[in-house]
Amino acid sequence: MPLPLTIGILSETRESERRVALTPDDVAWLVKQGVPVHVEKNPRRIFSGEEYEQAGARLVTRAHDAGLLMGIKEPRIDDLMPGRIYAVFSHTIKGQDHNMPLLRAFLDGRITLLDYEAMVDGRGKRLIYFGRFAGICGMLDSLHYLGARLALRGFSTPLSLIRPAWRYESLDEARGDLVRAREAIAQDGLPRELSPFIIGITGHGNVSCGAQEVLDELDPLEVPSRRMESLTRNEGAERHRIFKIVLAPEEKLRPRDGGEFHTEEYMAAPDRFESNLDRYLPHLILLIHTSYWDERYPRLVTKKLLQDLGRDGRLRLEMIGDLSCDIGGGIEITSHATTSRDPVYTYDHAGDCETNGLAAHGVTVLAVDNLPTELPRDASHGFSSQIREYAYNVATCGLAQGEESSGVQAEVRRGLVTHDGRLTRRFAHLSRLVGM
Fold first, then answer.
1. What are the pLDDT digits (tens) for 402-427?
2. DSSP single-letter state for residue 116
3. Class of domain 131-374
4. In the chain, is it the N or the C terminus that has fewer CB atoms within a 10 Å radius of its CB?
5. Could you read off the pLDDT of 11-45 as tens digits, one per residue?
């Protein structure tokens, strides 16, 4: 039996990135199975080099001897080592223009690219993701900055007890503040002018589930969409509860011809549909957006929608947490990605302009594009537990035959984007984008 490949844990190049693909605990498990692990030194990493050494790994400046290189974000083109296997989120599989040079470099270097985002089961469901923690961090941040915005407007709320995610050591610590905020809402209530306090969420995937996991710590009352109008007619009532609505596809969208919504028709011809949020946005204080979007699909929140609602005096919305962070996408006013340390700007629908920070008139937008790194230890543990078995499989079986490699799990083979200078069958359609 051939010796297993050495696994190399890459040093992330983004200064804000503290997550890891494999934690020391899972490195120790791999080493015990006979798989050598080399860890590139990086003082920003949430786990120390000493923790990896104690797990049996070898600390190196560059993992030149590793056959399987594992990281989180895209590596720099100049750092690529030819002929290796790279397991990363490459952000190339949707044909993103800005990352086509990276895909070309993988091909030119005869590198095998295993993209976590492409690893799916037989039904096409993603298996490797940070989505839950994107939702968790995004909801914590949104609640904190909503509280800060309301405070600037003179409203004292229990949301001031919640910190942004990056200021917590762990999710358990954050839960303590959420419990205190829940108790304060139940006892002291929310400002009459903001009640009923309704939070809307788009999407039903991992990001949405993570966001709801946090919001549910505040014990919201989930209401059907048909109750929103009757709720807001009773302004000032129901002050001791937050309300939550998770918008279904047929609530977010409607056919342009006025017919009924059918998912199959929408997927086949999304250009025949338009946003239905003009019915629901006037009732929300906070919108958390987690839905998938690409250029085929209609936008859910447009500048015109906000301008029309604002002009008619029907806009209660204080903030949008755009956790999908598609620039100019489903939320048109998401004009750029923000960072954990500079997370928000405010769109003035009256003047069609934006101002950094919370204080300006309009709708505040949070669009942090790397949310899970705000809770790097918890997020890394969750991710590493998903990937370690696949890492062992690749290290012990290799990928010499690419998508035809024997002994390699089907999920891994589906996740292969390039091999030996060529695109795999599943991603052959990208050839025109990289000049092949």
1. 989 889 999 999 999 999 999 999 99
2. G
3. alpha beta
4. N
5. 999 888 999 999 999 999 999 999 999 999 999 99
Q: Please, which residues bridge with residue 48 across strands?
A: none
Is the predicted pLDDT of residue 10 greater than 90, yes or no? yes
Q: What is residue 361's three-state secondary structure?
A: coil
Pick the closest to residue 400 from 132, 126, 5, 90 (CA basis).
Answer: 5
Q: Which long-range contacts (CB under 8 A, 24 or more apart) does 228-235 make?
A: 228/198, 228/280, 228/283, 229/283, 231/196, 231/198, 231/283, 232/196, 232/198, 232/282, 232/283, 232/316, 234/196, 235/192, 235/193, 235/195, 235/196
Domain boundary assignment for the chain? 7-119+376-433, 131-374
Q: How far is CA 225 from CA 252, 276, 279, 350, 432, in A?
A: 11, 12, 9, 28, 44
- For 119, the token pair is 């690893």
Number of helices (H), then strands (E), in the chain: 12, 18
CATH architecture type of domain 7-119+376-433: 3-Layer(aba) Sandwich (3.40)
Q: Is the pTM for the entire model greater than 0.85? A: yes
The tokens for 31 are: 């080493």
pLDDT of residue 236: 62
Instruction: State whether residue 147 is helix, strand or coil.
Output: helix
Burial class (CB in 10 A: 0-12, 13-18, 19+), 117: middle
- pLDDT tens digits along 308-346: 999 998 899 999 999 999 889 999 999 999 999 999 999
